[in-house]
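Subject: Sanity check before I submit

Could someone independently write out the structure tokens for this chain? I want to compare against mine line by line before I put it in a report. The sequence has 296 residues.
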Amino acid sequence: MHPFKHQCVRDLAWALGSPPLVSGEAGGCVWPEQRWFAHILAQARPWLQSVDAQPAELQQLLQVQKDRRLGRYFETLWFYWLQQHPRYQVLARNLQLVIDGETRGEIDFMVYDLAQKKTLHLELAVKFYLGEGDTRSMSNWYGPNRHDRMDLKVAHLRERQSVISHDPGVRQHLQQLGLQVDECRVILKGRLYYPWRFGGGVPGGQPIAPSGSAQGHLDGGWLTLEQFDKAFEAGDKFDLLIDRGWLSETPLSDVGKLYSKTEVISLVSAGKCRVPLHLKAHKPQQSAVFVFLTDM
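---
Independent answer below. Compare away.
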């Protein structure tokens, strides 16, 4: 049984405790490893239980958010945790860096760490990438709409977003606001979807992770409609993750309807569901797996 009753609290726990897609250090900026997130989640569990008992404040915060993109939702979950934590003081959120009428960029969070007596610059992102071809290269990992590529996103975070405070003009601007960056952290989470023969439990070899990705990252598989028809049996069931279930898992008790393979194919063929389509596959006597149905 899942420990939390409410989806928003399950998503909050996922945002805090799930493994990163990339970890290590670059440009003097730390990309935390999984043990850091696991420690956060372990410490937060009693608090999460209290939020689950009275979720109205979190639900209200999420409902009034005008930007419905998943990335903003992810940021808001982290903001909710940061602003209640006795160790941290949120100094700025989504800080637009407008200097002499020119927008230089944006800082996701400026947070004062009372324990270390340091000001932290936090950059957050949540991404879902599908790998094709030589999956060892980040350049072969695409977002569902293919306009987003893993290597470009990681490079942007490493070479632009995380080091933006190194720019003399930005540094001076922050000082005028009474801010100074002492340390930077990048939090990049999500899931990597491997070609189905690797990522979906079908025999065919071991998945080859992109170079530079973190060990233990979350994964799934992707396939075309034709491959989907061949890969699954008539008795398999599917949860359509259209506006939920991207972050934490949704318990079956909360799923309104599970679809058969035939129903999924009919919905896509009739244009009632568009690809790429995010699914959770439930095969008898097997663990559920996240699946992307696409026309790649």
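---
OP: Matches mine. For the report I'm noting this point. The radius of gyration is 20 Å.
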